[in-house]
Automatic annotation (TrEMBL):
Name the record gives this protein: DUF1611 domain-containing protein
Residue intervals of the D-glutamate N-acetyltransferase-like N-terminal domain: 48-125
Protein source organism: Vibrio ostreae
Taxonomic path: Bacteria, Pseudomonadati, Pseudomonadota, Gammaproteobacteria, Vibrionales
Superkingdom classification of source: Bacteria
Matches recorded under InterPro entries: DgcN-like (IPR011669), DgcN-like_C (IPR035086), DgcN-like_N (IPR035402)
Residue span, D-glutamate N-acetyltransferase-like C-terminal domain: 131-328
Length: 335
């Protein structure tokens, strides 16, 4: 699945900034792919791009209208259909990461067929994947893993990719979730792949490469999350990582959505992820910890990270507050 750039970001009737987080993510991480934004009159979000109509965006060269809304239930609103039809008519593809499928809406399918356009439901695979073989692949890979879901694995991965690219390194971000795919234009949404083929799908998106090349693979779920540990395991085995970064949110009282499950101890979590990863790469190393300290004050955050760093003997950063340069330094220093 590969999306054509540049994008027109459709914010629709988003009720607030959080509802437009997908569009904001694309604008933050791939501003060069964004021509402008299109908002309906009721929209309460703004990602700070030029306001463009469908026709103006088409004249400017937009190739894909990306639905940048993550609304309740992941639905395609009837209020959007007129805009989506116009985009297809004007020569754009449409991409969305919602639970509702673009391809389940007959009028969109008919218009796409009429004008030779594509409808990308990036949450859902469009190809068949092989069963993983676990064979050693050339090139190098870093995978982000987590103590829980939604602790900053995608943000950390993109920050590492940006830092490495800024140093002139040969690097690619490999998206494994719908938002990452919409940000970068390609990837596979691991949580929608049949379980037997998750590792194989990840092998497919980060194949053999040159010795100096790094794939930064976006992590999903957690080995300690009863709902999603299976996705995490398949992803770890398929990524065959040379390096891991552990992501953590320190104020969680329990696993996300599972009040009966406590968060794991960091050292225990590190060893579990290393043990799992050694199946396909016995030489894997944990090179650092990325902490989401947004719920802490500056002083609290620094004190917490200093303690974790002292306890684990690994560099600990908050990528939003400090960047990830120290993680990349450690990556390059590893034996």
């Amino acid at each position: 699945m590969e999306l054509k750039q540049p994008y027109l970001l459709f914010l629709g009737d988003a009720a607030d900034a959080l509802a437009a987080k997908v569009a904001q993510g694309i604008k933050t991480w791939r501003p060069e792919h964004c021509l402008g934004q299109l908002r309906l009159p009721e929209c309460q979000a703004d990602v700070g791009l030029q306001e463009l109509s469908v026709s103006a965006a088409a004249r400017a060269g937009a190739k894909t209208l990306v639905i940048g809304v993550a609304n309740r239930g992941g639905v395609i609103s009837p209020a959007w259909i007129e805009v989506l039809l116009e985009a297809l008519e004007q020569g754009m593809d449409i991409a969305a990461g919602l639970h509702n499928k673009l391809t389940d809406i007959p009028e969109l399918v008919a218009m796409a067929q009429k004008h030779g356009r594509n409808l990308f439901d990036v949450r859902y695979p469009t190809q068949s994947y092989p069963v993983a073989n676990g064979k050693k692949r050339s090139g190098q890979r870093l995978l982000t893993v987590g103590t829980d879901c939604s602790v900053g694995k995608m943000y950390t991965s993109l920050a590492i990719e940006k830092e490495m690219a800024g140093r002139g390194m040969n690097v690619d971000f490999r998206a494994t979730g719908q938002t990452g795919i919409l940000i970068t234009g390609s990837g596979v949404s691991a949580d929608c792949v049949v379980s037997d083929f998750i590792a194989g799908a990840i092998e497919t998106i980060c194949p053999d490469n040159s010795a100096e090349h790094w794939d930064i693979v976006e992590g999903q779920g957690s080995l300690f999350h009863a709902s999603f540990a299976g996705v995490t395991t398949g992803l770890i085995h398929g990524a065959q990582p040379d390096a891991l970064v552990l992501c953590h949110e320190p104020t969680r009282q329990h696993m996300r959505g599972l009040p009966d499950y406590a968060l794991p101890d960091l050292a225990t979590c590190i060893e579990a992820n290393l043990s799992t990863a050694r199946l396909t790469n016995p030489a894997v190393q944990m090179i650092g910890v990325s902490v989401n300290t947004s719920a802490l004050s500056e002083a609290e955050a620094m004190a917490y990270m200093d303690k974790v760093e002292s306890d684990l003997g690994l560099p600990v950063v908050d990528p939003f507050r400090q960047g990830v340069a120290r993680l990349v330094d450690r990556l390059l220093e590893r034996v």
